[in-house]
Design goal:
- The complex is a heterodimer.
- In chain A, about 45% of the residues are buried.
- Chain A has one domain: Rieske Iron-sulfur Protein, CATH 2.102.10.
- By secondary structure, chain A is mainly β.
- Helices cover about 5% and strands about 25% of the residues of chain A.
- Chain B is mostly beta strands.
- Chain B is built from 3 helices and 40 strands.
- The relative contact order of chain B is 0.14.
- The chains are: A mainly beta, B mainly beta.
């Protein structure tokens, strides 16, 4: 179940208010899609992560399969993931905005397991945050050098990005990573280009 | 063509204020006008087809430039690198910004006439969020977009006329260059060499956007040069084209520089890799490659040689040579010769510290590499200059009055790569060098300065002066018949006027941000203006971060674009009786710069 404080929650965005909202809307049980609306893509491979999606390795990384929570190593390099729609049985990897980074930090009040999922798309210029500094344990964007701290809710620690990497709430269910909410903020660079903020 | 999507893909603000409405009817840009542009207008990227970056205007001179002052500014509201030149046609001024906004302004008053805003895809990946300006032809203005479309707009009112998709942005293709208008055609090239693309130059009909010809910079199967690529490497070999070419109307050849081959480490694609890091001469009517010169083969240093050559007639040994002058990212100043069906080699010499070329073939100019400076897989290799080269894209300028070429150079920098196998994935980086294995640092024996503005006497083949700056120089250059050179490019946010003969800094204005825009000059009603965008970003900013790391310091250059337009004070223009402006904008009484300015002792020409 999404945002269950008793489960192995990996979810900084999973506030009590959010749980209450989801329950009041009946979305937790129904698995309905709170972010779908007019104009949203209908191609399931392009949809943003949906409640109940599993996190899988993308097709370009390996034979497609679910990421097992135990594979996410403490303080190790992030694993690249994309959402998998268990109903349509497709990877939602047709949108670059669905690239996700999974890391494991020390357990906190946000995450008992230490497993966290972040957007893998830089908030500066929408490049893929594809590199990892194993010494400073920072997520790096190779385009313009933005750095993000996965142990500080994706905060910007270097480079031109102005916004933290959005987090994606996930739970661990039967060893798999399951999407438990929406990204904590807009994914990508759309809001990063103007001096008006 | 995507006529149906035009209404939803942009926002347009047509303002038609009282001032703007007073603008005369738009002056149609003809092929004839582009061949012989009036001194008062700036109709294309470098002002003229020969890519000189030279204005014949001479109201502003070395004697009065101290009284140059801003007459108006315009804030674009956008972040990142504002590199586009203000293009001016009979009172209308056009600039572009990052994210493909295109602004038309009254060139005299600064009043906005219209503003076009491209609606870019949400998942667009922008390695270089910038744009280098527009082309003008007929009654239209043309912009090449970062999602790889070519768009024509009505120059007077800004409404789109046609929108031609050029390539797929999801495969890593994008465009940042100013298109080139020649005789009814609009020419573009594509960026994306970092993403495993295959570069090309393409021409479209100015009237309706119909594709006319397309020439790949990497030959396909059966074409000459294809054998210089192993296996399928040609399909993803880069050689992008992201700076506007030159044109010789006499021969109808258009000259374009190409970027480096990809991935970065040459041993992964053994061979010369034609036509990467090369100069191409294309027949403007057919796109056929009539000649080429490869500056360096099998690149491993990320040296795009995209800057277009300057077409200059040189006197050598008493004879006039129709030269192609190229300031290479490889740190060499190249003099080539343009012929109807060939490009000859005249000579080349390094203008910054370069430790890679042991020699050049005297007939062909082909370099011989010092093997210890060629990066490999799994091994750290140092080389000089750094990946940003002696000069990146910021254009050099040529002044026919002095006979000097002005180079915005970066000296004393070296770099290192440790190569790794690159994994291809459409639309994502395909470099073969990880960010953490990419280094830039000052040369051990030379830490006193990095940025330079160099002047070279092309006929004598000698450097005559050098202005030096503590940090790097990313400033495109304008030179004028007033005996001046204008450039910014430094992290102190200054825009400067230099004496073209001696290199002395005669005037400077501190602006809002770092000036990486291409400066231009124009004239309206007898008043000469100098215009430039200030807006730091992209590689200038990124390089600053590497230098800060190397020097153990922090530099803050604010972002946000502003167009600055300067003119002399009214008293200098012979308009007595006008109230004088306040001193608020005036530079301090002493414009003597804090920077390290020195005449170069190597020079053979005395400062006048």
């Amino acid at each position: 179940m999404a945002c269950d404080p008793d489960s192995t929650v990996a979810n900084p965005g999973c506030s009590p208010q959010r749980r209450a909202l989801l329950k009041s809307l009946g979305l937790v049980a129904s698995g309905l899609l709170p972010r779908m609306g007019a104009g949203a893509p209908t191609d399931p491979t392009k949809l943003a992560p949906q409640l109940g999606d599993e996190l899988w390795f993308p097709s370009w990384e390996a034979t497609s399969r679910p990421i097992v929570a135990d594979e996410v190593l403490f303080n190790g390099a992030p694993l690249t993931a994309v959402p998998y729609d268990p109903i349509a049985k497709v990877l939602r990897e047709s949108s670059r905005l669905n690239q996700i980074l999974v890391v494991r930090i020390a357990p906190t009040t946000d995450t008992k397991s230490g497993v966290l999922a972040y957007s893998g798309i830089c908030t500066h210029a929408a490049c893929a945050v594809s590199e990892w500094n194993s010494e400073s344990r920072q997520l790096l964007c190779p385009c313009h050098g933005s750095a993000f701290d996965p142990a500080a809710r994706g905060a910007v620690t270097g480079g031109p990005a102005r916004r933290a990497l959005p987090t994606l709430p996930v739970t661990i269910t039967n060893g798999k990573l399951v999407v438990a909410g929406s990204f904590s903020a807009a994914v990508g660079a759309k809001k990063s280009w103007t001096t008006k903020s | 063509m995507l006529r149906s999507s035009l209404l939803t893909s942009y926002l347009l603000f047509s303002l038609f204020s009282a001032t703007a409405a007073d603008l005369p009817k738009y002056a149609t840009v003809t092929a004839e006008r582009l061949q012989h542009p009036e001194p008062g207008n700036w109709l294309m990227y470098r002002g003229s087809y020969n890519s000189w970056g030279y204005s014949k205007l001479k109201q502003i001179t070395r004697d009065n430039v101290q009284r140059l002052r801003p007459v108006w500014t315009y804030s674009t509201g956008m972040l990142e690198a504002h590199q586009a030149p203000p293009i001016v046609n009979a009172g209308m001024l056009f600039i572009t910004t990052p994210q493909n906004h295109l602004l038309a302004l009254d060139a005299r008053s600064g009043e906005l006439v219209w503003r076009y805003q491209r609606e870019l895809p949400e998942d667009l990946f922008q390695l270089h969020p910038t744009n280098r300006g527009v082309a003008l032809y007929g009654d239209a203005v043309y912009i090449a977009t970062v999602d790889a479309h070519l768009i024509a707009l009505d120059a007077q009112i800004g409404t789109p006329l046609w929108d031609q998709p050029v390539e797929d942005y999801l495969a890593g293709y994008y465009m940042t260059l100013a298109p080139l208008a020649i005789d009814g055609k609009i020419l573009i090239g594509v960026s994306g060499g970092e993403f495993g693309t295959r570069g090309f130059i393409q021409a479209f009909a100015a009237a309706d956007g119909k594709p006319l010809w397309k020439t790949y910079t990497i030959p396909g199967p059966g074409e000459p040069g294809h054998e210089t690529w192993p296996g399928d490497s040609w399909k993803r070999g880069g050689a992008p084209v992201w700076v506007t070419g030159s044109y010789d109307p006499e021969t109808k050849l258009t000259y374009w520089g190409t970027g480096n081959a990809g991935p970065w480490i040459g041993e992964t694609r053994p061979g010369d890799n034609l036509y990467s890091s090369s100069l191409l001469a294309l027949d403007v009517d057919t796109g056929a490659i009539r000649a080429h010169h490869q500056y360096h083969w099998n690149d491993s240093w990320d040296w795009d040689e995209v800057s277009a050559p300057l077409l200059v007639d040189l006197t050598r040994d008493g004879k006039t040579r129709k030269a192609l002058v190229h300031v290479g990212r490889d740190g060499y100043l190249w003099l080539l010769e343009r012929k109807p069906n060939a490009i000859g080699f005249i000579g080349a010499q390094n203008y910054v510290r370069q430790n890679i070329y042991r020699s050049l073939d005297p007939i062909t100019g082909r370099p011989d590499y010092a093997p210890e400076t060629v990066p490999h897989l799994g091994k750290r290799t140092e080389f000089c200059p750094s990946l940003w080269g002696g000069k990146d894209w910021p254009p050099a300028a040529y002044n026919p009055d002095t006979g000097y070429l002005y180079i915005p150079a970066n000296e004393n920098l070296c770099g290192a790569f440790t190569g790794e196998p690159a994994k291809y994935r459409p639309g994502e980086l395909y470099l073969g060098v990880s960010l953490k294995n990419l280094e830039v640092f000052p040369h051990a024996q030379a830490k006193d300065h990095i940025g330079e503005l160099q002047a070279w006497d092309l006929n004598a083949g000698k450097k005559v002066w050098t202005a030096k700056f503590p940090f790097h120089n990313w400033g495109p250059v304008l030179t004028t018949a007033g005996g001046l050179v204008f450039a910014g490019g430094t992290n102190d946010r200054n825009f400067r006027a230099f004496d073209a003969a001696s290199g002395e800094v005669l005037w400077q204005q501190r602006t809002n941000s770092g000036v990486v825009g291409v400066p231009t000059a124009y004239e309206i009603d007898g008043v000469q203006y100098i215009a430039v965008q200030s807006g730091w970003g992209v590689d200038a900013q990124r390089k600053q971060e590497y230098l800060d790391k190397a020097f153990g310091r922090t530099t803050h250059v604010p972002q946000g674009g502003v167009l600055w337009v300067f003119a002399l004070e009214k008293a200098d223009l012979g308009e007595p009786g006008e109230p004088q402006p306040t001193n608020w904008f005036k530079p301090a009484t002493s414009t003597r710069p804090w920077l390290l300015l020195a005449l170069d002792n190597e020079g053979s020409v005395e400062a006048r």
